[in-house]
């Protein structure tokens, strides 16, 4: 399987989030395992540590392919791609904001993140409607949607 020369911006942001999340989790597990005396629980911790380490190594291998200033013109070649990229970002924004909201205890922060979530949902709706209206996301026509996926994948593979 051939690797893309440069990852998309939204992929890079997801890799960033996963790397940070897994790194912090790995540090916590490595600190915690020192205090675990139960053999079975210690074994579970060790397996999870091994999985996180392996996952982090794989994620770090992707960092050389993250976008650098000037790279965007190499793969952002049309309006459909840009709109799709914004749609993907909007989905991630809704998801990440909703997750953050479930972790709040402070009323002011909860109110603020609720506003942010509503704004993110509205933004997602705007870009989805744009794409749908311009025939870029035929979400109610499965055959056409899948054909677009194949065309996009083929375009990406040929780059």
From TrEMBL:
Record organism: Melghiribacillus thermohalophilus
Assigned protein family: Belongs to the CotF family.
InterPro entries: Ferritin-like (IPR012347), Spore_coat_CotF-like (IPR012851)
Record-annotated membrane-spanning stretches: none
GO biological process: sporulation resulting in formation of a cellular spore
Designated name of the protein: Spore coat protein F
Major location (coarse): other
Gene3D superfamilies to which the protein is assigned, alphabetical: 1.20.1260.10
Cellular compartments annotated: Spore coat
Keywords, ordered alphabetically: Capsid protein, Sporulation, Virion
